[in-house]
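Title: Comparing notes on inverse folding

I've been comparing how different people in this forum approach sequence design from structure. To keep things fair, I'm posting one structure and asking everyone to reply with a full sequence. Here's the target:
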């Protein structure tokens, strides 16, 4: 009887609407229950953010870095997943970029799910999806979240954000503003040897970037009726990077030896705008949903560089000025149809058209001459997909097929001939079969074919001058990477074992090449011949009273091959992740996370072992004030080493990170909002390729 009484109170409370009268006796009813921070189902991992310590992290990218298998680049502009590559990012089943992710308030996030076998309704661009679901509040009105995060790495960084929601009846308005003052420290070195030319060239380069950054987002959602809605969204991100690249070089070319100090003073501006309109309509006559939308994105980057060299301590002398501009614009439109039948079988159909244009200006001014080139790139992509899912008896199935036609053309403005001319059609089948043995045991079989296209900016002619003998460069001739993956997953309750085999053609990695005429060594993204590998993954969660832990162990055997490279034997290596959460009295939570990789030998590439550990403690004061202290990379162990031999060039590289961090975060929430139904669906499935 007591439980029924509480349920009736909750139902009565949810029917009360906002009015000028204030309840005199009862203000709120809060029902608390134990929730799991990590949940595993069908091989996918789901993280409860709203009811865990992770809600106190002020930056969504830093939040992702705490999760298993996810790796974040030092500049926080690239996300990769161990064994899967670059993921597709979704917010509420809507595709976004990392720029949109950085504009999202962590307080809006309900959960994060890592989908390792996405269906055909997700585009063929990737092998894994990170799905972020936003939470729905219960009060109509106005809510504002103010967050402040100060962190100490090698330099002081500060992140400030305001996120506001206004909801009234069928209308909802959202706006967010972030101002970040960031200083990025980067350092790497390489030892190159070219035996055929009797050359040894070693360098150590360091860059310190000061980056004031503004992020603004706004959106309007209008619920036309119970099933139809219209949404308009706009995002803007601007940043100015001021950075000096300093390089110390030792270069021996036969009997000639030089010691060079290089100063590359850079001034860079970036601006990204993104806007889209979505309309969702229910066709009542056939009980189906129809979605249509349009999206436009524009990215501009301007880099000016002044370069000087000091040979053998004889003083700095001007070498060259560089001015590089890149502009990318993308327009896309899509339509989706979804129909669910009485036998719970669901049919999904969709089509998309995309057009992207990229222009790159490249100017080099030396003492006696100047070089200018303008490169134009155009890509068109037409796609259609179908997805059929349902169940036969207890067996759940999903069959999907996606077809895409891609046309790519690239040419220099000064030439009549097209240097890049591609026109190809690809089919992407996907299959998933789930067989429940009983209530606690399940077997899942998956097959998927996917593609990974290069970012629009990497298909430009932009390059970075390191020293007189060495340059980092993009590659206008990159081809997409095709991947076939088959996997078998067994799950017992929340513990799972997953075995997968992957075969890739045209994988993309950095490669070296030497131009004997110009005496220049180039580090450039390139397509390799093939890559294949096995991955055996164990996911083992446990819980005991106030302590819960999630552990992941992956045994990986991977081989990367190329005709121009020295391919060594591949050896298996381990990835391990262990997360421990302690929920203590008085709303105190402690998280201890450690992850690492053993020594890796993957055919061409040999990489070092890694290990790091993070610590976080959080406490909530006065219900609306969250305070968090974090300490990352406690033992300062994150240094990446990579050795390989390609095109007759042997390289031994080391890449330092600025992962050791102490941060203090404060977040305060004002007001509440009721039944937030804001939705947006990204139209441009290639928006993540803009950087």
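Reply #1:
Here's my take.
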């Amino acid at each position: 009887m007591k439980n029924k009484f509480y349920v009736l109170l909750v139902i009565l409370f949810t029917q009360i609407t906002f009015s000028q009268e204030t309840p005199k006796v009862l203000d709120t009813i809060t029902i608390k229950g134990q929730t799991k921070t990590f949940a595993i189902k069908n091989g996918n991992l789901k993280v409860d953010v709203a009811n865990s310590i992770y809600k106190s992290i002020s930056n969504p990218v830093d939040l992702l870095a705490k999760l298993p298998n996810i790796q974040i680049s030092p500049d926080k502009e690239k996300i990769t997943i161990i064994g899967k590559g670059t993921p597709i990012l979704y917010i509420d089943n809507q595709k976004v970029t990392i720029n949109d992710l950085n504009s999202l308030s962590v307080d809006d996030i309900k959960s994060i799910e890592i989908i390792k076998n996405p269906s055909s309704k997700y585009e063929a661009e990737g092998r894994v999806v990170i799905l972020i679901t936003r939470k729905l509040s219960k009060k109509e009105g106005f809510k504002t979240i103010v967050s402040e995060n100060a962190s100490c790495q090698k330099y002081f960084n500060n992140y400030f954000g305001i996120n506001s929601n206004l909801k009234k009846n069928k209308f909802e308005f959202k706006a967010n503003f972030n101002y970040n003052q960031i200083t990025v420290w980067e350092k790497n070195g390489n030892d190159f040897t070219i035996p055929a030319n009797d050359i040894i060239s070693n360098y150590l380069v360091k860059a310190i970037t000061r980056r004031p950054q503004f992020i603004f987002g706004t959106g309007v959602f209008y619920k036309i009726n119970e099933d139809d809605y219209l949404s308009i969204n706009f995002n803007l991100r601007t940043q100015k990077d001021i950075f000096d690249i300093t390089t110390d070089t030792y270069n021996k070319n036969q009997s000639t030896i030089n010691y060079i100090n290089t100063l590359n003073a850079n001034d860079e501006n970036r601006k990204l705008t993104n806007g889209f309109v979505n309309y969702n309509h229910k066709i009542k006559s056939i009980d189906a949903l129809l979605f249509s939308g349009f999206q436009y994105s524009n990215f501009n980057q301007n880099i000016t560089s002044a370069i000087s060299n000091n040979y053998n301590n004889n003083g700095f002398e001007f070498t060259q000025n560089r001015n590089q501009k890149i502009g990318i614009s993308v327009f896309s439109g899509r339509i989706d149809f979804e129909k669910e039948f009485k036998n719970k079988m669901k049919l999904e159909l969709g089509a998309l058209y995309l057009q992207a244009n990229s222009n790159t200006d490249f100017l080099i001014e030396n003492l006696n001459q100047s070089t200018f080139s303008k490169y134009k790139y155009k890509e068109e992509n037409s796609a259609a997909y179908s997805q059929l899912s349902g169940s036969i008896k207890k067996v759940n199935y999903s069959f999907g097929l996606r077809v895409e036609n891609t046309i790519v053309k690239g040419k220099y403005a000064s030439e009549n001939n097209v240097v890049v001319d591609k026109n190809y059609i690809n089919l992407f089948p996907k299959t998933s079969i789930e067989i429940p043995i009983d209530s606690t045991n399940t077997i899942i079989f998956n097959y998927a074919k996917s593609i990974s296209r290069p970012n629009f900016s990497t298909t430009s002619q932009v390059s970075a001058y390191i020293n007189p003998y060495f340059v980092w460069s993009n590659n206008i001739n990159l081809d997409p990477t095709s991947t076939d993956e088959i996997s078998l997953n067994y799950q017992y309750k929340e513990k799972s074992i997953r075995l997968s085999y992957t075969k890739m053609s045209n994988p993309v990695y950095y490669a070296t090449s030497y131009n004997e005429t110009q005496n220049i060594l180039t580090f450039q993204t390139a397509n390799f011949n093939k890559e294949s590998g096995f991955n055996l993954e164990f996911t083992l969660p446990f819980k005991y009273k106030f302590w819960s832990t999630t552990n992941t162990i992956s045994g990986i055997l991977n081989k990367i091959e190329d005709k121009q490279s020295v391919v060594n034997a591949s050896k298996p290596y381990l990835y391990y992740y262990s997360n421990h959460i302690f929920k203590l009295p008085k709303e105190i939570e402690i998280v201890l996370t450690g992850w690492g990789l053993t020594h890796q030998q993957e055919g061409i590439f040999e990489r070092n072992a890694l290990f790091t550990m993070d610590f976080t403690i959080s406490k909530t004061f006065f219900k609306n004030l969250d305070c968090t202290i974090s300490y990352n990379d406690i033992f300062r162990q994150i240094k990446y080493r990579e050795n390989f031999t390609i095109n007759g060039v042997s390289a031994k590289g080391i890449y330092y990170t600025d992962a050791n961090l102490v941060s203090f975060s404060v977040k305060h929430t004002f007001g509440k909002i009721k039944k937030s139904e804001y939705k947006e669906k990204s139209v441009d499935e290639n928006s993540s390729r803009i950087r």
